[in-house]
Amino acid sequence: MTYIRHDINNNPVSPQPGVSTVSDLGGISGWSTVTYQNYNSDFIARTYNGLSVREVNSFTARNIDNTAREPEDYLRRDDTNFPKPKLDLRFALNKSLTDHISGNNLITFSRASSGTFVGSDGLIKTTPVNLAKNSEDFSTGRNNASFGVKPTVNTNQIAAPNGTTTADEIVTVATAQQNRLANPHSVTSGKNYTYSVFVKYNNTDTVQFYLGYANKMNGIGTFVFSTETATISGGTGLSAGFDKLSNGWYRFYFTASAFTTGSTNSGFLGGTDADKKVYVWGEQIEEGSSPSEYIPTGATISGPPRFDHDPETGESLGLLIEESRTNTISNSDNPSGTVIQGTFTRSLESVVSPRGIAEDVRKVEVSGGGAVLRFGPGASNGAVNTTYSVSFWIKSVDGGTGSINIDINDRNITEVQYTGEWTRITRSGGNRSDVGHQFFDLSQRSSTTDFYIFGAQMEIGSFATSYIPTSGSSVTRAADVAEITGTNFASFYNQSEGTVFVETSTPLETNTIDVQISDGTNNTKYELRSAGVSLTEAKPSIRVTGVTRFATAATAGSGSFRKLALGYKRAKNAFACDGNISTSTSNFNLPSGVNKLRIGDEYVNTNRSIGHIKRFAYMPYRLPNTIIQSMTS
Predict the structure, then answer these.
(1) DSSP code per residue over 546-607
(2) What's the confidence (pLDDT) of residue 72?
(3) What is the pTM assigned to this prediction?
(4) How far apart are CA 287 and CA 188, in angstroms?
(5) Is 8 exposed, middle or buried (0-12, 13-18, 19+ CB in 10 A)?
(6) pLDDT confidence tier of residue 603, bands split at 50, 70 and 90
């Protein structure tokens, strides 16, 4: 029987399908010839409501009621049942800057100082600082220290230990003295410093680096590739070692002690011959007797990011972002204070501190009545119309309970209760229009329970920040800066539509910015703010060429963290906070030319998010409103 193809009206079509003839080897009959019709050779896809030919790629997925199904209705989800992102920064879970999707670190992070945070064990930790500026660019910020000559540096020659093509090549030049590539930094007398650098063989078996100039410290480290040996020499050299990595890389390090405080320099040390070559990457100079995890730097020194924890439960809180603050109390670990009334007997005693180690803390013995102990720069040493925040750890000596009053600039008197466990006390206030004081007082109540005090801090601001240790003078902790720019930003961003999500701690100030995507100005940007003009609401901001197009706030929940999401698409913009949503169907052009993402602040470092970012995620498509609501609930 011959197959005849018919059209929708049951009329035979023309032409009919063609035929094909092939040879077939049968089991009994042997070779035979078979002819069959090509039933699908002339198939033409047509539209559902007529006979017009369907264009290639014109297929539209439809719901049961025949309405077009939005592509985003098909949602891939990750292991947390979250819509599958293109960029997923799980700060609280991973305790790193690494993108959970790609496995790469796309963030450039800096903080030009050390910083403290709470570890998972509830104890205070202090980050190291890389004193070597431009740690991955040996051609920048270095000199010959006015001795010998500066060797040639060829940048970005081979793959570095992190997989990027950022490793440099140092090539010596002929000289009567020596080749020297000096990176300036400062040291403090009596402290140990460790120099570390990643090295790979080129054409020279033995390489040398030095730590400190002779008038401050003197350590010379030598590494031999063929024998894999590391040695230290020089008047204050202490030790040397190395870690063997993959692809021929080694991390070479050595330690020396400083005998004078001041400016010095450290770096590569070559001989007098020309064309001696070595590959280098990741220079680091830090206080201490061993190398810490590598900390990249740019034009400034930098400490690593801090991943903080709840001191009571150990819960991981995520990336800690803070503004710059100064602790004006000197010798903060064991503050003595000044008795301005009555009698407080003060002494040092070695006890286990909030750091978890035995060290000297201040013991205060309470005797008599009406005693007042004052801390800080003192009367008339502050500014008028200024709010201060104070903080310290306190515990009783005998393990019992006690109480004491605290005031700031003779204002805002409150009671502090303490027990046999270290507790950090924080208070804010002291704003006066009549006189610029800067102090806080501990005043005796009826309790006579002696106490220890540790980690005293006084800073300008309406809330206390992480502990800033001091020794002999005030100390400033620099601001945390985290951003994604360049090709890293382009790798995930979609201009035409997208959804941005962040989970952040409940804000302490209005207009707190947690995420900004911009062109580096205030005129073209997307923003997610965990607080608007009120602390009870969160708000977005979409600005196009200097005009705010969408900024409708959403009511925030009452928890210690807030979840925010912004979905953008032309005429389909939505913002949600803790399950509450605001939308806009205004038809305006979306911001164009954006090229950077700032986490925890904006491009000018104001209205900074002070607290913790648990998670940031970016999806290169506009999620439906119902999903945006549910992912923030």
Answers:
(1) TEEEE---EE--SSSEEEEEEEEETT-EEEEETTEEEEE----PPP-S--EEEESS-TTS-S
(2) 45
(3) 0.85
(4) 9
(5) exposed
(6) low
